[in-house]
Amino acid sequence: MSDGAKIAICPGTYDPVTFGHIDVIHRVAQIFDRVIVAVVHDPLHKAGTLFEADERVSFLEQALADDANVSIETFGELLVDFARRHDAHTIVKGLRAISDFEYEMEMNQLNRMQRPDIDTLYLMASPQYSFLSSSGVKELAMFDGKIDDLVPERVARRLKEELAR
User: Fold this and answer.
1) How many other C-beta atoms lie within 10 A of the C-beta of residue 21?
2) Most buried of 20, 44, 99, 138 (most Cβ within 10 A)?
3) What distance in Å separates the CA atoms of residue 148 and residue 161, rounded to the nearest whole number?
């Protein structure tokens, strides 16, 4: 049952979490009473993840520890079903560029067909993070590029460890 709190879902693979993700989640936490960061357990549209879901959740927990109204969970169902289960009526997505919008618009239409009572809110990336993607960070790390300003320190360290294998 709902207690009247406005709940938002911030879904993603977060493989790995970047400062861009963290910025969006911090901003969403200022707007909603409760924010659930929903970590996709096994993404279908990606070729697997570098980090297991538990480690991605751990990265997020550490990065968002100061946000009292934010919790992190994994999911492996339709996003709208996850939202409904948590009594959330808003999915929040960060957008960086037009290419993000095209994909997200398609997903929004599919979600609305399933659950018309759940809306999607788009939050534009802060300018300093408008270029930042998890795949870009992984590529930089693979070639020993500088990533310390793009991800939390623990994530940078683990990326270097994983990609050195």
Assistant:
1) 25
2) 20
3) 14
DSSP helix/strand/coil, 72: strand
Q: Can you read off the two tokens belonging to residue 165?
A: 């294998």
Tell me if 50 sits within 8 A of 138, measured CB to CB. yes
Q: Report whether CATH 3.40.50.620 matches the domain 7-130.
A: yes
Note the pLDDT tens digit of each residue in 139-161.
999 999 999 999 999 999 999 99
pLDDT tens-digit readout, 107-129: 999 999 999 999 999 999 999 99
Distance CA 124, CA 160 (A): 29
Neighbouring C-alpha atoms within 13 Å toward the C-beta of 11 = 22
Round to whole Å and give the CA distance between 129 and 145: 17
- The stretches in the chain having pLDDT less than 50 are 1
